[in-house]
Amino acid sequence: MASNKPTYILGISAFYHDSAATLVRDGEIVAAGSEERFTRKKGDPDFPRRAVDYCLREAGITLQDLDYVGFYDKPLLKFERILETYLGVAPQGFGSFLKAGPLWIKEKLYQDKMLRDALDGWEGPLLYAEHHESHAASAFLPSPFEEAAILTLDGVGEWATASWGVGRGNDIELIRELRWPDSLGLLYSAFTYYTGFKVNSGEYKVMGLAPYGEPKYVDLILKELMDLKEDGSFTLNQKYFNYLSGLTMTSEAFHELFGGPPREPETNLTQKEMDLARSVQAVCEEVMLRMARSVHRETGLENLCLAGGVALNCVGNGRILREGPFKRLWIQPAAGDAGGSLGVAQLIWHRHLKQPRPVTPGKDRMKGAYLGPSFKDEEIEAFLRSVGAGYEKLERRCLTEKVAQLLADEKIVGWFDGRMEFGPRALGSRSILGDARSPKMQADMNIKIKFREGFRPFAPSVLREKVHEWFELDCDSPYMLLVAPVKAERQIPLTPEQKTLWGIQKLNVPKSDIPAVTHIDYSARIQTVTADTNPNYHALISEFERRTGCPVIVNTSFNVRGEPIVCTPADAYACFMRTNIDYLVLGPYLLDKAAQPEWKETEDWRTKFQLD
Asked: Among 72, 143, 273, 482, which residue's Cβ finds the most Cβ atoms within 10 Å?
């Protein structure tokens, strides 16, 4: 391999949900992004052309400079599974087959050509990895470990729904897998559907709703729905599910078992939905713990890497860290399908090209997940002028001090700074910020800003060096993928009257001295912030602590319900103007809502400011 020319590898995930692209240069992750952020279509499954274009722009190259393109799963294997499933349940499922079959026959069986056409006829090597190989590679290869056990969990890839293996040096080996139709991800999605939320996006809501309920259905799930083994493997009783032969997740037998049809979306939540959420969450955690313990017994390794959509279940991750046998845990921040684009690109570099993998103990290679686009000051100012915005440009220290005081005064601030995050979490680049000490902040942000259900919890961003003083956690959690309890001395015990409350009635009862980020079970989904990964965000929280004595702020994603996280200054300004966000930071520019012109959004106004 010529040493003077960099090797560029483009990884792609597409055609199911959350399409994405990742560009790797000589093993270094240069850029990554989900297509939804650019098209503004939530969960966009189409070929990620705009994400690809962004990656190429970030590296300053064209398609012709690419040495390899990788795709994150194997379409023919997936089609084999789909065809065998339909044949296995025939004549049931014919309607579902009529819907999916022609698409596969016309397009997806010719995916090689379709991908090349989408890449303007690119003629270089196009390689494929299996779905769970891509997940496993994304979990281990960027991790801070020389060797580690690997566990992947999701809905389904080609045939696998979970897998475990080992990563050593520059390669991974998958040793065992759980196969379709037995899937922890699909079990959780079935309850997501049944409780009235959208599959593949509402699972977060089920996890957030769970603490309001009681685990009263756990025994029923384990008795009727699944046969769970000690090692975490299981089979699902397909009598209760409809994803093999129909277009919904649950069957009439499921509805009869749990006392009625699924909740209609957007109708009022009842204690039943809360209890169902708590029950499936408890079962999910038990499966995750059993699998982790089994993998530890099999491998004897001290480190565990996680990926796959189920690895976004941060409550389960927290329990694995606290109760499992592994000493250290690392979770891919883009754990879902988007991260598969990163995994396949890294596989090509390390496995196919046999390149070494540098490891720095305690430091991963994800660059804080800040892998998306950033914008120059002059670009931002050009946009602000184009819409007649009122703004002031501040020196960084002055901006930090002013925003810290705004937060201390209980103002809500949109924070747009640096490169956009890769993965579903906002980590201090595309975030909405608030005062964690404020008892009203959770309700204000949910109802007035996010336009979403009031029960949805918010996450704390905390200085890494202070996390142990506020939470039962003393390790890195940079990607907001671990839940841990708030320190006991910071908790506010319930009064006898409050203990009689049930379900959603508990929502507005302060649980700690940082009530805006403390869930009703005294837990929090934690992001630790370091100066080396995000110096501006760390400086802001440090200044907030200097003024208030509290090194914790509220961090929620910069978007409203049903929309992707903002990508461009135009996206951020639109979200700012449509909501009750008080102030907006765009790089060095500070905008006061009261100083803005009347908001008139037209369908084509976004074209005023394009990425290219």
From this structure: 72
